[in-house]
Amino acid sequence: MKHTLRIQIEEIVSLTDDEFEFVLSHFQPKKFKKHQIIIHEGDNVPYDFFVANGLMKVSRVDMDGKEHIVQFAMENWWITDAQAYHNRAKATLIVDCLEDTDVFALSLENREKLCREMQKMEYFFLKKTTAGYIALQKRILCFISSNAHERYNNLVSLYPGLMQRVSKSMIASYLGVTRETLSRLNATV
User: Fold this and answer.
1) Nearest Cα to 39, choosing from 109, 75, 89?
2) What is the rounded CA–CA span in Å between residue 153 and residue 187?
């Protein structure tokens, strides 16, 4: 499992074995079960999670009880309630497991320590944060400038394996459409 984390980091920066062991010492490996909620709305958010194996989602439930999925996180993705994690605030989102999931958990304190003590890791997190920001910006622009069919095609092209791993209801929630609309979109593809 630690090999997955090393590959993730070394996509951006090279590490010696000793450097990687130092980095690894700042993470906590954790295992979660399918349907386990990792972060509840109102919780403190002590960790950012690197998904080594499994599938998670970030969502919010509105006043009418409708779930809105903000993000999925498959292998090699990072997931948390970023606002709460970085600002040491209460969670406004829910993070839960859609499959049995193995992660590396990184506290904010350990992330900041790594960045202070190892410039390579500061650069790594800068690149990952920038990539996440760009992905979020693309998702927002897709929502405000694309119709449901275009959003669906974009999701399928970006994450083809996701469709086999999550329910149609979850895909519909992520796309901001009803289950019926998603069924019609599936029929036209």
Assistant:
1) 89
2) 13
Taking the complete model, does pTM exceed 0.85, yes or no? yes
Whether 187 shows a pLDDT value over 80: the answer reads: no
Residue 187 and residue 82 in contact, taking contact as beta carbons nearer than 8 Å: no
Structure tokens at 171: 């895909």
- The shares of helix, strand and coil residues in the chain, as percent rounded to the nearest 5, are 50, 25, 25
Class of residue 149 by CB neighbours under 10 A (exposed 0-12, middle 13-18, buried 19+): middle
**Is the separation of the CB atoms in 95 and 58 below 8 Å?**
yes
Per CATH, which fold does 2-117 belong to? Jelly Rolls (2.60.120)
Which amino acid is present at 57?
K
Q: CB-side exposure of 48: number of CA atoms within 13 Å?
A: 21
Using alpha carbons, select from 73, 35, 24, 72 the residue that is nearest to residue 52: 73
Report domain extents, the chain: 2-117
Rounded mean pLDDT, 136-163 = 89
Contact between residue 91 and residue 81 where contact means Cβ atoms under 8 Å apart: yes
In this prediction, residues 120-136 reach a mean pLDDT of 94
